[in-house]
Amino acid sequence: MEKTKDQELKLLLKQFDKHYEKTKALNYVMNVASFDAQTIAPKNDGAVNERSEAMGFWALEDFKHQNDPTYDRLISDLQSQLADLTPEMKRIVFLERKKIDQLKKIDPKDYQDYAVLLSQAQVAWEKAKANDNFDAYAPYLEKILFYVRKFATLTKTVAGPLYNQLLDDYEEGNTIEKLDAFFATLKARIVPLLKKIQQSKVKIRMDFMSRKFPKHEQLAYAKSLLTFIGYDLNAGVLAESVHPFSSEITPSDVRVTTHIYEDNFISNIYSTAHEGGHGIYEQNIGPKVKGTILGHGAAMSIHESQSRFYENVLGRSYAFTEMVFPELKKQFKDQFKDVTLAEYYQAINEAKASLIRTESDELTYSLHIMVRYELEKRLIEGSLKVKDLPTAWNELYQSYLGIKPKNDRTGCLQDVHWSGGAFGYFPSYALGNAISIQLLKTMEKTLSLEKTIKSKDLIPIRDWFTKHVYVYGKLYPPFVLLKKVTGEDLNPSYYCDYLEEKFSKIYKI
Ligand SMILES: [Zn+2]
Fold first, then answer.
1. Alpha carbon 118 to chain centroid distance?
2. How sure is the predictor about 1, in pLDDT bands with cuts at 50, 70 and 90?
3. What angle in degrees, to the nearest 10, is found between the helix axes of 134-155 and 108-131?
4. Residues with beta carbon < 5 A to ion ligand 1?
5. CA 470 – ligand 1 centroid, Å
6. N or C: which end of the chain has fewer CB within 10 A?
7. What mean pLDDT is predicted for residues 199-228?
8. Stretch 428-438: mean pLDDT
9. What pLDDT, on a 0 to 100 scale, did the predictor assign at position 59?
10. Strand runs labelled E in 221-364
């Protein structure tokens, strides 16, 4: 008897679920192993090698699983029944087709060579940075660029320059055209603001920021902070790692990490708030998409809008500082005995031109991203040669931030991204900053941030984001989601207004 269309679809969806079950099991093992490696696993050479081998095995299993020709056919069969699929399933089929087609165009030999190159480049970059030797690293960067360009050319589906493809790979719908306009606005408004701040007479007291805060007390504080902002410690964990990060192991197990420095108390506070923001997003994905391919943050820009929101927009606001400072004074009596609320608020908001992106403040952060955007755009289009990168880097720092690195270690060798082949990724950080404020503007039509903070119950904020953003997971591309929530395309003027208002007050300009 011939199967009805309905039965056929049911069968296809069953096969799809079976395939995804294995994907989830593979992801679970790889996620746990990676979390373990970055937190508590020993770092001796033997352990590192043994771990790399085991992880290589699982990565290969995953590669084979995703490139299985049967799966390719299954997705095609589902495509032929698109009209009968749910909106969620339609989106999943679209994303899977895109992924399979991209992978199919890449020669497995190239794929393997590139993977080897990246692991070598990682070591070469670490050494070059430690020895401040750009020339030793340059050949690796050249080879990486060769592959990045080759892969982007082969898989190109979006119109315009090659760099558009790389941007689209990280943020669906992102283009040079969009970013040029976006960064032009930021440049026109943040650069002059920073110049005014540099001439301001306001002197910010920083001496107490390096006082000693015992590690165990900092960890306890970080946990209470996470709970307070709405992160669920029963469905996650706070661990320590060299570089703070968040990781969704499974939908009900979303972990975050922090780094404790006893002489830099706020580093822990703001790393925790930042990663907590990422964690809150993943913990509150809606039931329709939870546990599916769509059960994650929409894109890196939207994710970063949440981490930056909890870190800066909320965490560095006057209302929040005013609320937590009395508690801090109670808990850390000695460290804060001669510090006023005004001094503390100024200290956590000090804005100044600096060389290192990861240590930069709320105001200047996007300028660091602008430098990288300009440079990678030129590197990909070929108008900038790798050998000229240090000079070009230093010139842009001079032009945007008014300072120049004295060496490449604090210049173009500082970030890990390019040695990992991540070209097109940096802009997401700056987009996240701007999106956090655009979302805030919409939120404030019905929910006042300041009033909510003053009520000492932050859950309505989390619930607002859940209802308008988290619920959809990856159902919509980032810019489509942004428009759906705010009714507008990306509009960086809100972000610039916010920065001008906040920092003009602090620096009395
Ligand atoms: Zn982040």
1. 20
2. low
3. 150
4. 307
5. 16
6. N
7. 97
8. 97
9. 85
10. 238-240, 246-250, 253-258
How far is ligand 1, taken at its centre, from the CA of residue 4, in Å? Answer: 48
pLDDT given for residue 55 in this prediction: 84
Confidence (pLDDT) at 179 = 98
pTM > 0.90: yes
Flag whether pLDDT at 2 surpasses 70.
no
Alpha carbon separation from 370 to 340, 355, 419, 469 (Å, rounded) = 35, 13, 19, 27
Is 444 catalytic? The answer is no
What's the gap in Å between 345 CA and the centre of ligand 1?
23
Average pLDDT over residues 332-353: 97
CA distance 199 to 63: 55
DSSP 126-180: HHHHHHT-HHHHHHHHHHHHHHHHHHHHHH--SSSSHHHHHHHHHSTT--HHHHH
Identity of the amino acid at 194: L
Q: How far is the CA of 380 from the centre of ligand 1 (A)?
A: 25
Look up residue 238 and give its DSSP letter.
Answer: E
Nearest CA to 494 among 246, 57, 182? 182
The catalytic position among 96, 171, 248, 275 is 275
Place of tokens 């690293």: 137
